[in-house]
Amino acid sequence: MKNFAYLDGPKVVVIGGGTGLSTMLRGLKKYTNNITAIVTVADDGGGSGVLREDLGILPPGDIRNCILALANTEPTMEKLLQYRFTDGMLKGQSFGNLFLAAMNGISDSFEEAVKKMSEVLAVSGKVLPVTLDDVKLKAKLKNGIVIDGESLIPKLQMKEKSPIERIFLEPKDAKPVKEALTDIMEADEIILGPGSLYTSIIPNLLVNDVCEAIEESKAIKIYVCNIMTQPGETIGYDANAHVDALFLHGLKSLDYVIVNNGEIPYEYKDRYKEDMSQPVSYDVESFRQKGIKVIEKDVLAIRNNYIRHDEQKLAETLMGLIG
């Protein structure tokens, strides 16, 4: 595997949010610093939701995680920024979120605050919110129920036991960050996922002009499929259903889908099954008929007793598609 020199590394754009995206970024930054992470800002739960409501800022959580994944900083600093208060008025809040909120207070915009925090932490590449508009995520279930708010979607979907039919943003005409569109157009590789399909990846596609920019870009377009199905979002989905949902919400084409073919230990399959989660299966022939190539790789890792993507194996696979 070629280890690209930083200065001439390929231009990679990753689109999504959540834990999966930040994990992948830690692997990719070993190959190039020409990385742009375009991150959803629809989160309204947890510490991010509290700051969003109290201070009127965009939710910082996913952006914070991506900045830290790309940062070149001391372990103690990362530990500090990920520290979550356990008592008092700040209980449940992370110091990194407060740091970004404070940076927003001394900046002209949230976009500028993200850039300033990235500079302080010597980030390899850049992190951009997909939009600066105050958007709310909603989901319509197949039984007709509409769920109002990103944090409620998985909970109420499980309660209703009705699949998600479609998600949408309010306002529907959310404007993209222009730099995000520019980087998409100039990319060598565009990567969607891994992460929650309906609450981390697709919300980015719903912002005006994002899908059009992806389609017009000459970049290789890749979807990194989750290893396990997700309760409240993708129970019963195979990889083909994941991709169908992307197309339903505006994506127009893909070149590759990366799926895990590594063996999941029996005890983890059994434990995940208790939460109605199972390994994501896939049909190579069905993808071939759509003109999409399937990359079958062992990209499995067990981290803190959870099934995750192996950041190094995944990065090697992704960079190999460029090479």
Number of domains: 2
Number of strands: 12
Q: For this entry, what is the oligomeric state of its chains?
A: single chain
Shape: globular
Estimate percent helicity: 40-55%
CATH topology name of the largest domain, in short, is: Rossmann fold
- DSSP helical segment count: 14
Q: Give the strand order of the largest sheet, numbering strands 1, 2, ... along the chain.
A: 3-2-1-7-8-9-10
Distance between the termini: 9 Å
Describe the structure.
This protein has helices at 18-28, 46-55, 61-70, 75-82, 95-105, 110-120, 153-160, 178-186, 197-205, 210-216, 239-248, 266-274, 284-289, 311-322; strands spanning 12-16, 35-39, 126-129, 136-141, 146-148, 164-170, 189-192, 220-224, 256-260, 293-297, 300-303, 306-309. It is an alpha/beta fold. The protein folds into two domains: 6-40 and 130-322, CofD-like domains (Rossmann fold), CATH 3.40.50; 43-126, no CATH class. Helix 11 links the parallel strand 8 and strand 9. The radius of gyration is 19 Å and the shape is globular.
Main attributes?
14 helices, 323 residues, Rossmann fold, alpha/beta, three-stranded antiparallel sheet, 41% helix, globular, seven-stranded parallel sheet, disordered N terminus
